[in-house]
């Protein structure tokens, strides 16, 4: 990751971003925070601690000579990159750790926040600003994952608990237009103003053939048509791999949807509610997005088509599946060190999503932002924009 | 289950037994109670609620006409026998339910306790006494399982939390004698005084050939000898199935043991501590008990040999593996109804353990008590007594 | 295993028993002999070679000083007991070996047969007679397994091939009587005349309470009644473990049964044919046998009840599930050496079957014979006799 | 698929291509042809029959009114695209079918060949030429898969059989040069002369930034350096997913390699032999190719870089992993009907390989040919070309 930090790092900005994480979690009970119901989910407590560990490890322990580590074991418990063989008797598995308690983790956050605020107050060298900026961006990424994971934890138990921090969708204009884009040579990637991640760099030229892209996302009403037309039963619409996946998992609708007495209902963080046909469809996999597009005689945009056209439509409610695999840009360079191996190692068997979502932290995304998930995942806030 | 209830059911006895469950859990944090780290483990919260549901379902809802159910959904959440297809959108899975909270479950316990105390106070018909007695015995079984499950939850995370309610072992006399028992026709099974479970009934005669049985359990020091003599590497000592199991699971020592700097350490509810050679070895599977006995040129007793000789040695610290499969006694009868199908359906591929353990509720066991677990399980408090 | 060999070992008897194995396989194609469609199945070629290896390894290589091993690699390919870590680059997995060819294996059989015949002709010491007798009994066990395995290979492919060597069942008298047996002390186990396996030894006394046992096996017609009465859908009839098993495996009828246009059909070695209601039901698991007996208000006999009553009914068409776990007799002793560890290591989580089947070699079984399989297995020729 | 058929379809060309398939299989034994040792492998017999079924189904049954189907069940047994629910009692699973025999399948081939030759002789409409051309290309694809699958079947059994049809590699010039390619707009895709598959169509422009590509493949000697430098133990070199894969599968070297007495040996279709350092390394996954390139400070080419530079180096011994995911070209169109859904449905989670291999049928590949496999697969003849 590289950062040209605008705005700069101040104690106020630092604490404001950090406090957002606690706000998301403010209505959680201690019972909610230690569970990992699926491989791709982390317990909320882990997010709270792991983001804190980042600042302790890469800033305070290294650059603040008076800093005393809050608890030396936490680095071991909450470090996602820990890949060498440990000398400890037990491996820390995220989903098995009931301790430390939520309270201890919140104390840890407060402790590190206080030290960071003092440390920032004293003034920062430019490379330290970069590291802290990365830490804040990292915090915001985990804020979004927190929302995904809490929704998954709540949405897969029969009590359907609600979260104070709801992230409602709003209806887009229902009229659909296809915006034409002309063929030509376009510039792709981040232009080095403001922060970006390493995977957006390597600005380069891409030649695009002419295409048309929808001004809005696919709606629930449209998606229900697809379901009712037998979309989930027609293997011709699906990737072979996607077809096997929905058969094995018995998938017949987006995640969190349930048919109750003939009506489509869904779990949201605000509660169990009827599916609103005017809202964009959310929680679909790449497989489902692809099949839907096939059924409509359209296709998904590539990430380049999306980026080039993005100034011509509104986006930001849902991450939008593209038909681009997550691969390095031509001039992509791995930054050395632990911070550096951040993105490159995921560049196989993942698909790019562009945009942002109602769960994304404010100012965290941009038109060049490359999000990525495996094709079968659905717990992220993902939607569909058609191209042809 | 059948019950000739001595002592009788009083509000005091009812509340005393019930309160023991809360005592076991008193030092748990809310974070600890919702986790299910293995199939054979239930979350502590589930035990707390499920035992309560028993009294609500089989006593109050059926016989107390003024009783108002605490929460109608709880029957669905906390009913282990629920086997028909539900009409609910989501299956209640024990390990996924963060809600209801621990506090709600404790409120549920208090509510049901209060109603039960009043109900008992009014006087009980004899068959109701039987049902409540079964409920209390059921409560005590779950008290023991709670201790197993808490130990498993705590013993499989790197923080190794401790529990206020420790259940320490004490050393037996170290001298080993083999008590001789003559061949003859013996009576086996419960004699119908005091409570017993259905699987103890069907008193019957068994002819035993002469045998000798140890006056004490195998110690940690003896078991370490077995380990160091390569017992876990010599497939001739093991059942074929046991050998495959320890290979697949990479088992080299009892559960909760760790070799740290050349010394054997173990997790106990009181903390991480050195293995004491004088104490009986605990947390071994039937496979390990069998292999140890083979290595010593001995064997495990049958459950009949154990029962006949049990008056001649002390027992009660650990459940003792027998080489008897868990099968019905000759006159075993299934009691009709939901309470009746309690034990018979488990009578395949399980092995009998006899005795009791430091985790067993007071007065809950007896010489005829037939405990049973699958041969590979180790999280119960199980030990080894030799026979030859 | 111990053997008091009657009749004695002659070249004629040796070759006659051995040739039976080739007869069973005589209508197989080379394509049929290398496949292993399930863990519990061995390829026919493996049986042909493995039984031969026994005589080469334990007789010729050890006692015939002029013998030259047919192929030194065969010991490695066809030795089921091979449990130490090999120095070869690849593990021999039965189901992956297309080579050596069937022809090579038949050559191997002829070569070893010729040497064995000459060797026997020269006269044998008594302990050598014992080893060869065990080899012949071992050969007969594999003859039966061959029939199971060929049926499984043929019965699980859409072409449903037939085998020249069919093993048809015949109808028993359809009238059912329950033979009463009085309570008393009975002697169980082999009396040391004629050959027996180690698990039959340790003759001992068993006290039996009075019981009644059916004069015939359960028929297909009776079993169809159970199916049509919803036996496979009523979890109260099943072991908990059995219920899970039939749910997971979607089992609704005995193995090889198919409902075609409303009629029950089954694959037999003679072809795909209608189920004949008068014949005994075959290819059921212990779970199914138990559930059927529950449904009839009966139970399965113990192996002791079966053995004591066996002189009073006809048996031999199907192995009969008992409700006894496979465990050692009181005086059971492990015979030292490779031949010795034959049976004891399987004595956990298996159930005993008594009798013999149409697939059993002539003179291979007897009233004390203890066959055993895991409770879920169905590819063996197993049936049901009721007790009450 | 679309085809401008040059050369045209004649009985001679048809029979010549078809006979190549039998030639590859000519030294197989019947025992070799029915086995499926892994999901991605098909039994040789299946390849022989399936390619024949293509001509029966899409040509003879549809266009030759006198044609009588060889065996009506074969369509069911040998049709890989069969995706609707069948009415047959048993699903045809490729790896379980010992019947029909090899001889029957060869008779099937001869029968269809004779009818096809007569049919072609009578003259063909242009669209029929296209279909037959696709059938022949399909035959050639299966010829290559046959070689992969036979090698896998032979290379995973301890006997290491050899195949008459060996496909030896030859050493390239050992000097390594990096060929520079200038940035610019290039045309990618097939130009519609001669046959191509649908995935090569949609000719389009791609802008490439400047790069340098190796004149030769990575050699065994170079790859051994990587192994000995600890390449398989340094997780920094690997995709996260690749790292997990090699840990789980315990992969430490290319497929078919074995270290024997300190020297690297490998199974080839010609036998078990020492690894020759001068030859190109083969049987590596995309993960291994990527890690090797990382270790060398290089990268893999994209499929576009490969295609543009391909006229400047020799290729054809091994398929070359590119760092391009297998995705549709801009103007990619699904051809309607069963033949049409050929390629598009695999366009997710696969990586493109370019070139051809020693196992590829003559004239079957070209510079625009897009082969594809999942990133973890290694049984195909895949090698590594570096770019920087």
Automatic annotation (TrEMBL), chains A, B, C, D:
The keyword Cell inner membrane is annotated on this UniProt entry: no
Residues in Sulfatase-modifying factor enzyme-like domain copies: 175-325
Pfam families, alphabetized: DinB_2, FGE-sulfatase
SUPFAM superfamilies: C-type lectin-like, DinB/YfiT-like putative metalloenzymes
Record domain DinB-like: where: 15-144
Highest taxon in the source lineage: Bacteria
Swiss-Prot/TrEMBL keywords: Iron, Oxidoreductase
Pathways involved: Amino-acid biosynthesis; ergothioneine biosynthesis
Signal peptide: none
Keyword Oxidoreductase: yes
Name this protein carries in UniProt: Ergothioneine biosynthesis protein EgtB
Species of the source: Winogradskyella rapida
């Amino acid at each position: 990751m590289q950062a040209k930090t605008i705005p700069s790092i101040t104690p106020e900005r630092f604490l404001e971003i950090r406090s957002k994480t606690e706000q998301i979690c403010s209505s959680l009970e201690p019972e909610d925070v230690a569970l990992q119901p699926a491989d791709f989910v982390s317990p909320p407590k882990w997010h709270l601690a792991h983001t804190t560990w980042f600042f302790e490890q890469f800033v305070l322990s290294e650059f603040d000579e008076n800093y005393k580590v809050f608890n030396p074991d936490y680095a071991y418990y909450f470090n996602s990159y820990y890949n060498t063989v440990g000398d400890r008797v037990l491996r820390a598995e995220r989903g098995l750790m009931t301790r430390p308690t939520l309270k201890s983790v919140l104390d840890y956050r407060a402790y590190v926040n206080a030290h960071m605020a003092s440390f920032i107050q004293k003034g920062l060298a430019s490379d330290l600003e970069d590291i802290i900026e990365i830490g804040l961006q990292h915090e915001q990424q985990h804020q979004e994952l927190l929302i995904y994971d809490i929704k998954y934890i709540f949405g897969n138990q029969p009590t359907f608990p609600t979260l104070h921090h709801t992230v409602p969708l709003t209806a887009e204009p229902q009229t659909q237009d296809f915006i034409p884009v002309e063929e030509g040579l376009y510039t792709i990637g981040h232009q080095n103003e403001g922060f970006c991640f390493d995977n957006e760099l390597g600005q380069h030229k891409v030649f695009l053939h002419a295409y048309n892209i929808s001004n809005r996302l696919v709606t629930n009403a449209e998606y229900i048509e697809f379901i009712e037309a037998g979309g989930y039963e027609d293997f011709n619409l699906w990737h072979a791999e996607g077809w096997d996946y929905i058969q094995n998992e018995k998938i017949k609708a987006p995640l969190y949807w349930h048919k109750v007495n003939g009506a489509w209902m869904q779990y949201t963080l605000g509660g169990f509610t009827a599916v609103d046909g005017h809202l964009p469809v959310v929680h679909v996999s790449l497989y489902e997005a692809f099949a839907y597009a096939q059924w409509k005689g359209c296709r998904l945009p590539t990430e380049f088509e999306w980026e080039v056209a993005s100034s011509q439509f509104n986006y930001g409610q849902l991450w939008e599946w593209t038909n681009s695999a997550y691969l390095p840009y031509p001039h992509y360079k791995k930054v050395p060190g632990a911070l550096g191996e951040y993105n490159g190692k995921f560049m196989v068997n993942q698909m790019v999503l562009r945009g942002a979502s109602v769960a994304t932290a404010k100012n965290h995304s941009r038109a060049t932002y490359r999000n990525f998930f495996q094709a079968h995942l659905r717990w992220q806030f993902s939607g569909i924009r058609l191209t042809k």
